[in-house]
Amino acid sequence: MDERKRDSMVAYLRRRMAEVGIELDDLAAAFAEDQIKQKA
């Protein structure tokens, strides 16, 4: 994926996250929880 397309996708995701009230900390917590579950 080229950098311009990536930047566009990141901007889109940030807008959508803001629309539904998802924060970066929410994603980080979800990823951490998934990693813990996978190790178990």
TrEMBL record:
Protein origin, superkingdom: Bacteria
GO molecular function: DNA binding
Keyword annotations of the record: DNA-binding
Keyword DNA-binding found: yes
Name the UniProt record assigns to this protein: DNA-binding protein H-NS
